[in-house]
Amino acid sequence: MSRSRALSRRRWFGLTGATLAAVALSTTTLTAPAYATPPNIPSKATAQSELNALTVAAEGSMTGYSRDLFPHWITISGTCNTREQVLKRDGTNVVVGSDCYPDSGSWYSPYDGITEHAASDIDIDHVVALAEAWRSGASSWTTSKRQDFANDLAYPQLIAVTDNINSAKGDQDPSTWKPPVSSYHCTYSKMWIRSKYHWGLKLQSSEKSALQSMLNTCSS
Predict the structure, then answer these.
(1) Cβ partners under 8 Å of residue 205, min gap 6
(2) How deeply is 95 buried, as exposed, middle or buried, from its count of CB atoms within 10 A (0-12, 13-18, 19+)?
(3) Of 139, 4, 123, which is closest to residue 63 (Cα–Cα)?
(4) Residue 14, Cα to own-chain centre: how many angstroms?
(5) Residue 134: is the preceding peptide bond cis (ω within 30°)?
(6) Which residues of the chain have a pLDDT value below 70?
(7) CA 145 and chain centroid, separation
(8) How many CB atoms lie within 10 A of CB 176?
(9) What is the pLDDT of residues 154-164, one digit of tens each?
(10) Rounded to an integer, what distance in angstroms lies between the CA atom of residue 150 and that of residue 197?
């Protein structure tokens, strides 16, 4: 807009419609939040097929559960661990030090629509929480498989969000917690479904109903 203000009144009104449209588009692009998207989020049709294929069962027990049974964050490359990899992937203009920790950058949290500028204010959310995975079948996994799940960078299981919203979510499934930003419900449901499907986890009836409602908001 600063360029347009510098234009004389005569020159401004002499601009073509195409140029004005380009200026408007540029302004929209600059003000829209920018955030990375976790990989392998399915289409609506694929997510529906995967949701239909998931086994519905009563929720399992928390007996024996410990976060230590899901080792994270592990070293991924050089000095970078899983958390730092996601911070780099999901942030904007992220600059890291020799220890791979971000010295600067910004992170848009799609769950609550908040942008933070300090990595310390960002958590890496396990879309399907570790405790939820335990109750859904991971209690019978080996520790090695639980480690792979807890550090899954290949599927939409990890995402950078504000620490406050991550704390509010806790280990709840979609039947009791959904992102406050309703426009993200579609994406959230597709990420949740894909993660449970890929890892062969079960879901309870109320969870399936909540996921179906959110998936119904998707256009594609």
Answers:
(1) 56
(2) exposed
(3) 139
(4) 45
(5) no
(6) 1-36
(7) 21
(8) 12
(9) 999 999 999 99
(10) 15
Instruction: Report the distance separating Cα 32 and Cα 10, nearest Å.
Output: 30
65 residue type, one letter: Y
Rounded distance between C-alpha atoms, residue 197 and residue 36, angstroms: 22
CA pair distance 133, 108, nearest whole angstrom: 26
66: region left, alpha or beta (phi > 0 left; psi from -120 to 50 alpha)? beta
Tell me the two tokens of residue 47: 């997510």
Question: What pLDDT is recorded for position 35?
Answer: 58
At residue 7, the pLDDT reads: 35
Angle at 198 between CA 53 and CA 84, to 5 degrees: 150
Q: Look at residues 148, 220, 146 and name the one whose alpha carbon lies nearest to residue 186.
A: 220
Q: What tokens were used for 51?
A: 């949701």
Q: What is the DSSP letter of 119?
A: G
* Sheet order of strands, 102-109 included: 92-96, 102-109, 114-116
User: Residues 214, 186: contact at Cβ < 8 Å?
Assistant: yes
> CA 70, CA 38: separation in Å to the nearest integer?
20
Cβ-proximal residues to 25 (8 Å cutoff; 6+ apart), any chain: none
- Residues 6 or more apart whose Cβ sits within 8 Å of residue 184: 110, 111
Q: Tokens 């999901």 sit at which residue?
A: 90
DSSP state at residue 176: T
Sign of the alpha-carbon torsion through 168, 169, 175, 181: positive
